[in-house]
Amino acid sequence: MARLAGRHEVLALGRGPSRLPASIMGQAGVTWADGDLGDGGSVERALLAFRPEAVLHDGAATDVDGCERDPLLAWRVNVGGTEQVARACRALGARLVALSTDYVFDGEAGPYGEEARPNPRGAYARTKRCGEEAALLLAPDCAVARVAVVYSGRPGAKSSFATQVVERLTRGEPVRAFSDQLVSTTLADSAAAMTLELLLEHRYQGVLHTADQGVVDRVTFARRVAARFGLTGEILPVRTADAKLLAPRPLRAGLDVSRATALLHHKPLTLDAALDRFHAEWQARPTP
Ligand SMILES: NC(=O)c1ccc[n+]([C@@H]2O[C@H](COP(=O)([O-])OP(=O)(O)OC[C@H]3O[C@@H](n4cnc5c(N)ncnc54)[C@H](OP(=O)(O)O)[C@@H]3O)[C@@H](O)[C@H]2O)c1
Asked: Are the C-beta atoms of 10 and 25 separated by less than 8 Å?
């Protein structure tokens, strides 16, 4: 929304009243609509009333273990919600970019290119994969943008592994990190630039991997975050199986981003460049 406000007429859709800052909601051409991806109709109705030319769909039920506990909710939101959005795009002739995840892969043999065959495990992963199909099948002009391990230092951004590393080490607390999970990482602002370019400036259709460059295990990622912030402290390697998580996690995951690198003007970032921007975002936060 920060990248769109003031440049386009834009409808922000979410549950309940707007929680966007006044700096965004106060811009001319920005409106908000209350819609629930899980109720079968309200998001579709709001889109049909607004009549957008392009839709970025990134709302989802994202609590991986929560989805495992409540697969009905995961299905309603991740499949039914995407179906609502895709149906509206179909009716309006609007372009759709829908966000998805590296979790559509089983993590046996990453990093994965766009042509690799998905094999999702667990309710979150399976419903996100079905959501991809709903988007690609129903919206005639559609791209699915897959990201992984998203983080942001912007004020109000969601807590993430990277922000927890900074917060815990700053407080002198140890960080636990999975040593056996190989992942791609994604600075949210980098994915926002890539997905909006894909939405507004490209006709690319199909799946595109829009994470940042490289694959790291989470211990290395935590160490790189700590080093960039000049933080010392304990980073304790743990194995995924020992954490007894409810939903399965892909272990050798990671997304090959060479297609996005060739296609887009906003390229996937190197980890060093992404961490520089993360650090700058963090430094620009208002002091509490
Ligand atoms: N974060 C990651 O590491 C990661 C990795 C891979 C893929 N992704 C994908 O990236 C996208 C964004 O993820 P995120 O990490 O930003 O997730 P998030 O912080 O949990 O945001 C999801 C958004 O969806 C909204 N939402 C959830 N249920 C809804 C419902 N029933 N109706 C309307 N809105 C609803 C949430 O609204 P509320 O604020 O009201 O809850 C929230 O704004 C998702 O498609 C996710 O699958 C994320």
From this structure: no
- Ligand 1 contacts CB of residue 158 (under 6 A): yes
**Distance, CA 159 to ligand 1 centroid (Å)?**
12
Q: Which of 11, 62, 76 to mutate to test the pocket of ligand 1 (most atoms within 8 A of CB)?
A: 62
- Band (pLDDT 50/70/90 cuts) for residue 156 is confident
Beta-strand runs (E) in the chain? 10-14, 30-34, 54-57, 95-101, 142-147, 150-151, 175-178, 182-183, 186-187, 206-209, 216-217, 235-238
Q: Model confidence over 203-254: pLDDT tens digits?
A: 999 999 999 999 999 999 999 999 999 999 999 999 999 999 999 999 999 9
37 lines ligand 1 (CB under 6 A): yes
Whether the upstream peptide bond of residue 111 has omega within 30° of 0, thus cis, is yes
For ligand 1, whether the C-beta of 66 sits within 6 Å is no
Q: Could you tell me which residues come within 8 angstroms of residue 267 by beta carbon, excluding any fewer than 6 positions away? A: 260, 261
Q: Is pLDDT of 67 > 90? A: yes
Global model pTM greater than 0.90: yes
| Total Cβ atoms within 10 A of residue 12 | 16
Average pLDDT over residues 32-61: 98
Query: Ligand 1: distance of its center to the CA of 59 in Å?
Result: 4
The answer, yes or no, to whether any atom of ligand 1 lies below 6 A from the CB of 128, is yes
Give the number of other Cβ atoms within 10 Å of residue 251's Cβ.
18
